[in-house]
Amino acid sequence: MPDVRFSQRTVCKALLSLDIHKSSGPDGIPPIVLRTCAPELAPVLTRLFQYSYSLGVFPKSWKTAFVHPIPKKGDRLDPYNYRPIAITSLFSKIIESIINCQLMRYLENHQLISDLQYGFRRGRSAGDLQVYLTHRWVESKGEALAISLDIAKAFDRVWHKALLSKLPSYGLPEKLCNWITSFLADRSIKVVVDGACSDYKPINAGVPQVCVLSPTLFLACQ
């Protein structure tokens, strides 16, 4: 895979695609500001992203997520009755989306992801898998048994060492491997409830739940 490239056109397009109705990240910059100022910000962010990638360093300030617990049905005193909604930096989302687009294209074009993998892939869904299995069952003209398994907290269970040791085997450039290593390291969260924030809590395992790059890294680890 060639090194990831960042162009002003690509960065500007990513800025213009931001949903202005989404929340600001931990840095407090609303998406409408980034979208409105896209032509002016694109040259600066292009240089910043290229510098981050070339050095293999993901900015520390982009590694923190604000987690907002949203209550579900049931006892509100039970922590398991809350759905955590994490908010990350918009700058992180932009650089991730650019890298993810080029990385996923490479993995798909070189058939480095199993053809039986339907999750987290463009143009595929669980419904497509159901159609495929139904077709196979009809062709077999007999009885069929199915076993369905679900990996609880799948993203949280990704082992960094295994993932990072596997990336070079895909033919990924050293700079990208270094950048992903930095992307995963020293991450943290803060829990926010009614404007009050908890202390930072380090996250040393798994891939970040809300990050654009996480589904692709999860697939790469399989």
TrEMBL record:
CDD domains: RT_nLTR_like. Pfam families: RVT_1. Residues 51-222 form the Reverse transcriptase domain. One of its GO terms (biological process) is DNA biosynthetic process. It comes from the Eukaryota. PANTHER family: REVERSE TRANSCRIPTASES. This is Reverse transcriptase domain-containing protein.
